[in-house]
Amino acid sequence: MPHPDSSTTPQTAQGLKMLILPDGITEIEKAAFAGTRLAELTVPASMETVGYYAFESCINLKKVWYERKIIGGFMFVKCFTLKEFTIASNCTEISSHCFNYCSNLREITYEGGLEAWDKVTKRANWDGHQGQSETLMTKIQCYDGFMQWNAENRTWKEVKENA
Question: Domain 14-160 adopts which CATH fold?
Fold first, then answer.
């Protein structure tokens, strides 16, 4: 879905509030939906390429269901109202800075277990805790436990449920 000028969002997308990308679409260009009024988003596993900043500054975005294997860099930067983010268990990588300035995202749901979460590659500042964009994200919920952010040590700690 290319747009004519990669530094602007197409005016036709400005009123878009919900987006469920069908299996036939395989690519989203850089900043394709940046700044739109999206409130809900589903990205299917069949999506092959998603450009940087694809959903940056979607200030109404509250809920994301993400099935693709890789969450791209800077993908959800400045999505201030994002509260619900679910990652499918097939995810293998979370790229750099994808949740920077997501000030309402406190918890992510990962559909796999803690062992699988540990194997997901997490690039620099993926969670927004390492730079100037300190986030309030403190929990990654898995089906068999969760990861808890330890602000004092600035690390994630595994907490098993029913252990």
Answer: 3.80.10
